[in-house]
Each structure stands twice: as structure tokens, then as C-alpha cells.
Amino acid sequence: xxxxxxxxxxxxxxxxxxxxxxxxxxxxxxxxxxxxxxxxxxxxxxxxxxxxxxxxxxxxxxxxxxxxxxxxxxxxxxxxxxxxxxxxxxxxxxxxxxxxxxxxxxxxxxxxxxxxxxxxxxxxxxxxxxxxxxxxxxxxxxxxxxxxxxxxxxxxxxx
Amino acid sequence: xxxxxxxxxxxxxxxxxxxxxxxxxxxxxxxxxxxxxxxxxxxxxxxxxxxxxxxxxxxxxxxxxxxxxxxxxxxxxxxxxxxxxxxxxxxxxxxxxxxxxxxxxxxxxxxxxxxxxxxxxxxxxxxxxxxxxxxxxxxxxxxxxxxxxxxxxxxxxxxxxxxxxxxxxxxxxxxxxxxxxxxxxxxxxxxxxxxxxxxxxxxxxxxxxxxxxxxxxxxxxxxxxxxxxxxxxxxxxxxxxxxxxxxxxxxxxxxxxxxxxxxxxxxxxxxxxxxxxxxxxxxxxxxxxxxxxxxxxxxxxxxxxxxxxxxxxxxxxxxxxxxxxxxxxxxxxxxxxxxxxxxxxxxxxxxxxxxxxxxxxxxxxxxxxxxxxxxxxxxxxxxxxxxxxxxxxxxxxxxxxxxxxxxxxxxxxxxxxxxxxxxxxxxxxxxxxxxxxxxxxxxxxxxxxxxxxxxxxxxxxxxxxxxxxxxxxxxxxxxxxxxxxxxxxxxxxxxxxxxxxxxxxxxxxxxxxxxxxxxxxx
Lengths: 159, 522
Known about the structure:
The complex is a heterodimer of chains A (159) and B (522). Chain A has seven helices and five strands; from the N terminus they run ααααβααββββα. Chain A is α+β, with helices and mostly antiparallel strands. Chain A has two domains: 9-65, Arc Repressor Mutant, subunit A (Orthogonal Bundle), CATH 1.10.10; 77-155, Glutaredoxin (3-Layer(aba) Sandwich). Chain B is built from 24 helices and 16 strands. Chain B is an alpha/beta fold. In chain B, 40% of the residues lie in helices and 15% in strands. Chain B has four domains: 4-97, Glutaredoxin (3-Layer(aba) Sandwich); 119-327, NADH-ubiquinone oxidoreductase 51kDa subunit (Rossmann fold, 3-Layer(aba) Sandwich); 332-421, Ubiquitin-like (UB roll) (Roll), CATH 3.10.20; 426-520, de novo design (two linked rop proteins) (Up-down Bundle), CATH 1.20.1440.230. The chains are: A alpha+beta (159), B alpha/beta (522). At the A-B interface, helix 2, helix 4 and helix 5 of A face helix 1, strand 12, strand 16 and helix 18 of B.
């Protein structure tokens, strides 16, 4: 039987109450939930919909439209690799392969032990120092496989 | 003796190369030597191959050292860099560095120079002089100044800003809004990020002038989520401007209110399209809208709305301050003023190059950029982001202006230029263009939603060598349908990188031989 992911209902309720009167409140609410919890629990959709007087379908439609909103909790570490053109010109494709092998996780997936989520991102605005990646919120430029291995040991949580 | 002032950029690009650790190491070393130091975390000068670029304020002006690593810090102190001492990393006076000296920095006049957290520093470097002029003018007069400057939208569409503002000014409906499009999603572009991190007040000033011009009381900055440092910088600057009366119930005591709110996107490229962005601001899926009505007439929440890119708005203060004539004398033809170009990809000296329109691609890539970073021959350049055309080496003598690039079958877009060496496979890049479109399509138009997926499949067949000529024909046909049958630039322009790759690099698709170009030249 699938186990329902637990989520912090009180935190979500506080965010919704605090922002529901903003113009176009849904995006700021979802953004804050994503930023604070690291994901947007599917079970929170009903609560949000009720507070904003929207249908659950409308809220789900917005959550599922945007790449940033995760439907499941991320790993303890999050690695984001830029796959856009400028980074490709400087070897991003080989870097993605290296990182995926090194972390033993596919692009777009979370490792089974929950240690890491590896995500693609399309431009970090660091195109003058390509290829660029972000490890746990820290941006790195001119990343080679060697530089990645070094950075991972520095930035890693509970390795 | 007063404390020496050191500049270590807090710009994301500099941080990505270790600027935070360098700043910390400098502070520690100064402490150890009992020296009193004032460290300013400035924006980037845009000379990214030199980041982290440390500057020292001296009697001879600001002197540059870079790229600095933590292990260089002790030797910099030993060389007495605080007094401009010589060191292997010494680059001389920053303003004399050729790459910077040859530019015309109008919009980026302060970026990398001032402390982006200090309103006083902004004021000391000519900040808010444009608003000071605007306050004395009527809305119509401000619009006239922008129209006379020939400023065109820097986001990519190049629409005359004055005409857009006039349309909103002429609407009787209220409230009106000013929306800044800071969803800079094109690969190879970073000028919006640089100005928001390095000189956020100039954007706020530009938006305030736009608000006075059209009679708006509220403004939004739609910022992409990939720019967290810009969010911090903008919110700090908005708070500082409000505290000093540059924003709020009565802008500079004029009796006219203006407030700015930053809204953060959620990783959707399509939200850089203005109507999708408005949908997102209203709390919906970023689906594009039909036009008309134009946003200038019925935009955010159905109200008249000026929507401009960051660089467009950040260019407004200098136009009001120095006058439309001053701005208009830069550039050529119908492309007036300056454009902050962004040089990226496989290039030795990538960075921000703000010059008058009219530089050629070759001058940009070779004179500024110094050729490829890998040292291999240059083979292809993509101009204008993921929806821009691919050009071979033989076409690099094109002038960088809106009309010249359009005439050559491309577009200038937001001014990003991405360089590739001879290891690039243009069939793969064409496939990537379709793949990206499939990933980011909002789904409103069938040719974009489905055509992009079919495009990936057709290119896969070509790459696999299955019936190449027929599939290439099918691909061109599909591109026609997408270009003609999509409402916005995503579906409408994704064919551009695909067809230009086919046209200029047929060899990569296993089609006929490549016309004599790249190899012959380099």
C-alpha cells in the first residue's frame, strides 16, 4: 500500500492565511509553500482552493504547469544542472553524465535513499561562466567533473 | 588614515567563481595584519573571465586584480595591493582595461562601480537625476522624451517604448500598472540579472518614471526564480527607496503615489512572453493570451499596463537625465542608443559589452571575446537566445542591429551571443530547440504543443539516417506550420534555430556538403 507523504498542514494554512488577500494570490502562495516546504503537497490543493474560492482543478492546473513546484519532497541535497545552449557549448552534456553517474541518480529523479535530487535547469544567467550548476542553493561556474567532485564534498549535507 | 576600500563583487557570476570566499579571506588577512578595511560587495563589471575581480580604491583611481582566488590573498597583501602594488594578478586601472574602455556604458554606467545596497552611493553617482527631471514634466512630456530617444524594447521584440507608453497614457481607465519583465530566460543572456544585482536602484527609478508618465500607482517586477540574489537586491533597494520617499504615497513629495512589488516566477520559460506573464501574475497557468487587446490597453487584471523588459526600464533614467538627443546620437539606422550585448558560450573573454548598435558579430566575438575558449576553430554562433538563428563563421561580418539581423534571417532578441567551436553538432542543437519548445510550450496552439514533439521525432529520424531528404523536407514543412500557426514567439520562432541549422549546416544532418564557410576562414 502506498504511504501518503506527510506534510505540514499548519505551515501551509499559515501561508495561505497570510497571503490570500494579495492580488493574484495563488502564485505567491504556491511559491512560498515550495520555498518553505521544498514541495507543494498534492493534498494541500483542496485547502488552497477553498481559501481562494477556486476549484481544485484550477489549483492543480497551476501547480502542475510550473516546473519549480515539486509534487514530492526533494532529497536532502538538491543539485541543479544547467542544460541550456551556453552551458552545452562548454560541455554541459558530459557534465550531466558525470554528475548522474557520480551521484547514482537519473536527471529529474531523487535517489532511493533520499540523499539527493538531480534536476535540469534551463539557464541560471551564469552563461559567461558556463557550465553552471547549483548545489544546495550555491551557484558554481566553469564546472568540470573534477571541480564538481570537489564542490560536492564541500556543500554536501549529511554525507 | 581612513580605512582602505576594497571591492569584491557580490554578483552571482563572481560568487560562482568563489568571490564570497575571497572576500572572507581578505577580511581575515586584513584582521591578522591589523589593517582597517572597508569591503564593498559591488556588482560585476561584466569582465567575467576575470572574476572574482578585486578592486582597490587608490589615489590613481580604482585598480583591478583578478581573477583572485583565496590562495592569492596573502600574496596580494605582501605586494601591498592596498596601495596599488604590483602583483601577477594586477590589471592596472579598471577603467583602462581595453574590454571596458571600448564600451559605451550608459545603462550600465554604475554597474560594478557602486555599492548596490547603498542609496547614497546611487545618488552620488548621478542616480535619481532622471526622476528629478521627470517630476517637473507632464506625463505626455515624459512620453515625448522616450519617443524622441527612439528607445525600443530590449526584451527581444524591439517595439518602440514611447508608442507603448503613449497607448497606456491615453487610456481613461484606472488603475494602471507598470510591469517589469525580469523573466530573463534566454540562454546566453544575463544583463537583466547583472543590473538587478549590481544597480537595482536604476530599475526602480526607471519604473517610477514610467509610472509618472502613464499615471500608474502600482508596479510589479516579475522575476524568474533562478535569480535569488536579484530578489534580495531588489527587495532591499525597494525598501531603501521607500524609506527615503522615492517610492510610496507621494513620490519625492510630488503627491503622486507609486509602489513596487516583486513577484517570483516558478520556472516557466513561457512566462517571459508578456501575456503569459500577466496570467501568471494574476495567479494562473502561464498560458498566452490573444492580442488584441494589447496589454497597454487591457493588461494586468484587465487594466492598462505598460510591460517592459528590465534593460528597457533601466535605460529610461539616463534618457531623462541626459536628454533624448544624447541617447539618440548612439546607434545607427532605426536601432538607436546602446545595447548591452552578452557574450557567452565557448569564448575566451565572455561578458557584458554595452556599445552603440552597429558593432559586427566578428568584432564582438574576436576583438572583445578573443575567439574560442577551447582554442578550436569557431563553427557556429547562436544570436538572440534559444529562439535565435544559427550563423556560420562566414556570416559574422553582420552588423548587430535589429534590422540587419532580421534581414539575415535571424533576430537580435535580448542581445545574447553564444559561441560554439567545431565540436558542435547542429543537428543535435536543432533537436534541442524542438525538445526545449516541447518542454516549455504552454499548450495553447496546436502547432507548438504537438509540432515540437513531432519535430524531435523527425530530427531523430534524420540523425538515424532514415530517409534523410524526405524527412528534411517534412521538417521544413513542420517549421512552416509552427511559424505560421503559433500565437507567440515560442512556437513561432522555434523554427528559426532549426531551419537556420539546416540551411547553414546541412552536413550535420547528413544532407549535402556544407557550403564553403567555417573551415575555410579559420
